[in-house]
Amino acid sequence: MKGKLIIFSAPSGAGKTTIVRHLLNKYPDKIEFSISASTREPRGEEVDGKDYYFISKDEFLHKIAKQEFIEFEEVYSGTFYGTLRSEVERIWEKGKHVIFDIDVVGGLRLRSKFPDQALSIFVQPPSLEVLKDRLRGRGTDSEDKLKERFAKAEHELSFADRFDVILKNYDLDTACAEAEKLLLDFIDKD
Ligand code: ADP
Ligand code: 5GP
Question: Is ligand 1 within 6 A of the CB of residue 111?
């Protein structure tokens, strides 16, 4: 089996995590989540080693120096996120495809590193206003963090056309059904 990458990117609040979780629950034998490393604090119910590898900035910088990342990004000022080479290899060795929830710049970078194996999907909210409502409604970020995420979101929405597919996340059930179809079509191909 040739291991593939299915990349979900979008501004924070668009619904990537919700859609990716749906796919993971439905197709646990086919796909596994690439757990990124991050220097941010765990949020809500998040678990270390499941949602992220929560590590210190020193540890993150050490991993950069040792070239352990396929891509990494200072997504928010002072907060780093990165995809570990060991994660992708671990999942492929199990005979599964890898599913990612990463920011738009990281998503495009990853796509360009695996041109024959990756599908990049941009999750599009109905509008910037709806995105803000969703992010606020999630109730996991402080007012400062929300402002930082809102400020980045408008710029990130302009990246949609650079992705292989734009997945509209207006109605969640419709978006999940469409995501399933995209996934199955892509992994069944050659
Ligand atoms: P992201 O991972 O892109 O930051 P999340 O998956 O955390 O986004 O979704 C942000 C918030 O919006 C969550 O509270 C989620 O339940 C909600 N949400 C996601 N998709 C929809 C949708 N289609 N309609 C309404 N709310 C949604
Ligand atoms: P959050 O703090 O909301 O979990 O994530 C913030 C942003 O960082 C999201 O857009 C998320 O997709 C992105 N992100 C998570 N992991 C990675 C990663 O490994 N690399 C990059 N470039 N972005 C990531």
Answer: no
* Rounded average pLDDT per 10-residue block, the chain, 190 residues: 93 95 98 98 92 97 98 94 97 97 96 96 96 92 91 94 98 98 93
Known binding residues for ATP: 10-17
The first and second tokens of residue 107, run together, are 């998503």
Please, which residues have CB within 8 angstroms of residue 21's CB and are 6 or more apart in sequence?
none
CATH number of the domain residue 24 falls in: 3.40.50.300
In a domain, 190, yes or no: no
Structure tokens at 70: 């396929």
Within a domain: 189: no
Q: How many domains, the chain? A: 1
The domain in which residue 19 lies consists of: 3-183
- Give CA–CA dist 37/80, Å, rounded: 8
Count of CB atoms within 10 A of residue 187's CB?
Answer: 17
Judge if pTM exceeds 0.90.
Answer: yes
